Amino acid sequence: MNNEDIRVGVFVCDCGSNIAGVVNVPEVVEYARGLKGVEFADEGRWSCSVDALATMQESIKEHKINRVVVAACTPRTHEPLFKANIKEAGVNPYLLEFVSIREQVSWVHMSEPETATQKAKDLVKMGIAKAMLLEEGEEIRLPVKTDCMIIGGGMAGMTAASNVADQGFNAYIIEKEQRLGGLLNGISTISHDHDEILAADIVKAKTDSVESHPNIKVFTSTEIEAVEGYIGNYKVTLKANGKSENLDISTVIVATGMQEIEPEQGQFQYGSDPRVVTQLQLEKKLKAQDVGDIKDVVIINCVNSKNATRGCCAIGCPVSVKNALTIKKIKKDINVHILYRDLSMVKDEQIHLQAAKAAGIKFVRFPDDRYPEVIKNNGNLMVNVYDFLLGRELEIPSDLLVLTVGFKGSDTVEQVKGHLKVSSNPDGFFQEAHIKLGPLDFASDGISLCGCAKNPKSLKETCEEGIGAAMRASIPMKNG
Amino acid sequence: MNDSILIIGGGIAGINAALNAAKYGTKVYLVDDTASIGGMMARLDKTFPTNDCSICIEAPQMYEVDNHPNIETLTNTEIRKVKKIDGGFNVKLVQKARFIDPEKCTGCGACVEACPVSIPDEMDGKISGMRKLVYMPFPQAVPNVVVIDPDCRYGNMREKGACVGGCVVDCSQCRECPIALCVLACQKEGKDAVRLWQSNKNLKLEVKSIIVAAGIMDAKPPTGLHGYDVFDNVITYVQFERLMNAGGPTAGQIIRPSDKEHAHRIGWIQCAGRGLDHGVPYCSKVCCMVAAKQTIITKEHDASVDTTIYYNDLKAYGKGFWGFYQKAIENGVRYVRARPYDVVEDPGNKNLTIRYENLETGELVKEEVDLLVLSTGLVPSDRNKRLAKVLKLELDKFGYFKEKDPLISPLETGVDGIYLCGGATGPIDISESVVQATAASMKAVL
Q1: Strand locations in B215-261 (E)
Q2: Which one of B136, B144, B397, B435 makes the best mutation probe of the A interface by having the most chain A beta carbons within 10 Å?
Q3: Is the separation of the CB atoms in A310 and A406 below 8 Å?
Q4: ipTM of the complex in this document
Q5: CB contact B442 to A (< 8 Å)
Q6: Which CATH number fits domain A3-133: 3.40.190, 3.40.640, 3.40.50, 3.30.750?
Q7: Looking at the domain covering A147-259+408-479, what would its CATH class be?
Q8: What confidence tens digit (pLDDT) does each residue in A243-281 have?
Q9: What is the pLDDT of residues B178-204, one digit of tens each?
């Protein structure tokens, strides 16, 4: 089409008073009318209203308009509507140019109506110029088959796989370790209503159902060598025992989990004294129901968390309370102290906190900038802590010192980032598409995210994310 | 077998459950008992920790709901009866009259302009929010259709200047109203959408599963708590959110109720009422970040405003939350670990003096503020009891819907085919609501 045939229609919206309250809309319309290529320009009180849309269609037909400029609120919410509308009027939807004179003009220049009007004119002029260069577009449809690869065989990955497979789709779990279960394999119990249940039971039930599912194929001790392609058409190369295997994959779910950040050597005597352990190391002891012959347990929360470089570990408060209670259950007369900065227990966690207090577990609050000190005296570990609620220094003996440390992403994060071209934050947690409204998606279509690979969370939340990620991956597979 | 699903509640959880199920290919009925979908998120100004404008990110999803061929949105509609049948549920609903023909109304607002009566808004009353008797719930409402206060129709508002023609007949007796200003204004626009004689409509649905996304509420402080309901300038954190919202009753001006003057010293009391007889017994998990956000935005409006957060425990559990708290401190927000025990008002200037114990030093301190905000936490929606009865679901000891087994089968309830998500399950933030909604939709479509 050459330039003489281009006939631009300009529709400027008042958005009630949202735009017209600041911008002199009639002036903008008049200005647009005078510009080259413009065949028709009009003002609408609410251009998105049903009657205005009908009028727009009539104008398009009447004036043989073949390029449409809408100057209104924002393309994020309203572009699809106007695209559909001009399509109904017989114009290719890609011949629409949307100019945002609400978000970019009236809302940000509320107190300067004159310059706002000038800016609106400039934006409309630019929109018209761009519209004249637009070419027709076609939407293509790519087939998406029903093969979903889940990276990580922990609870998030297994839950996602079950939900994918239950729809009749194929799920392939890729696990780098020898067995499924992930982080939960190393955990003793999970708080549950007013009680605890064995983590091993949860893992076993889930692993059994996954391994016996006809639509799930599990690859353990397997790593991903290469991923190429895009949604509906990923070529994946797996590596196991020195052998390679190829998979054709339609969608991907990332569920690579997290790991504890080890304390620095010597910090709180960690590394130099075997009685100083992290929460996950304690879990191992609890799992074996063997904490040794001990009398005094001290738990220090927020170790290397909530400082200049790292935030809240997200699960330390309930975990410390749960493990303290478990220790008390193993042996009632063990003294347990939890040293904390903040203790905020949501809903049922509050019940566990009350149970902990009732069981005689002592809570000591230390100031943000004054962490406890651990000293060795005649072979005994002593914890010196300033209890700021009491306003004095306490000296607490300890023959088991537990450090509640923070978490970081799995060691495979860098590799996965390279394969899938996705991003992560400095702690190795993957970056979701939108922190509020796209929590299970990556920016690229066809790849979803769940569980502790995103950030630390409880088992319940992990499973919810697994189910949700399955839904996100299933939508394109269901639609083909 | 019927393949459609019902979602109860059109907040951010219900919206996301609906969109996911609809995109999956399932027919969705999205029911909300208010005049627009959007829920609590539509009332908020910004979202933590990115300070995205709340309605600006929610509106596109609301709009997508409105336009999705697989979603039928039923606003102003209540669930009355649910019967379990083979393979699903029979549901009886009542769509309350909004006294407008939704097919004809374009949301132009001519009737709202014409209406002579303003009354205090349910949402924003305390902070002088007003609405007309015919009104749009909020500018981005979906559906974009006004609603008429039933009180208007029964003539209860005549004393305030409604129905200026002096008609004495109840609108339900008459099918033409030549005098109501809203009717005339609508006719003048060539639409004739006002239907003052409209009655409630009974609806019946057959669905295979149900998602309860009935939401959560901010806790209302008991009278007298830190001076609430006694002193003019003590408001809740949700009222403050409305104050700083450009779409709120003061167009974003942070002014205090007593004299409509800008507040220059603002205090936030966190965990207000926590653990007291009528207070919230647990940590509601969002209020710390809400307060951080509110102080940051307040400082953006006017950096010279003094902002102090009186708190005990800090909850900064999510991604980017700790950094957000640090940003608040960098912006000059003062955090004081405090146990407030008393608030007194200066009867002259209506300023408030907080007396508190500084937990770190043990000192008793007095401080004066112009405006005091109570972060009262989140409590179960007042719909839960009725809804639980209708759906034959159990509530937990706090009043949230009970999951059958939170660990083994999260979001499932005691009734097969009914699932939960969002604030119906307990205190929750937006992204967690979206996660649960996506998960619940997975369960519901299968």
Answers
A1: 216-218, 234-236
A2: B435
A3: yes
A4: 0.94
A5: yes
A6: 3.40.50
A7: alpha beta
A8: 999 999 999 999 999 999 999 999 999 999 999 999 999
A9: 778 898 899 998 889 999 888 999 999
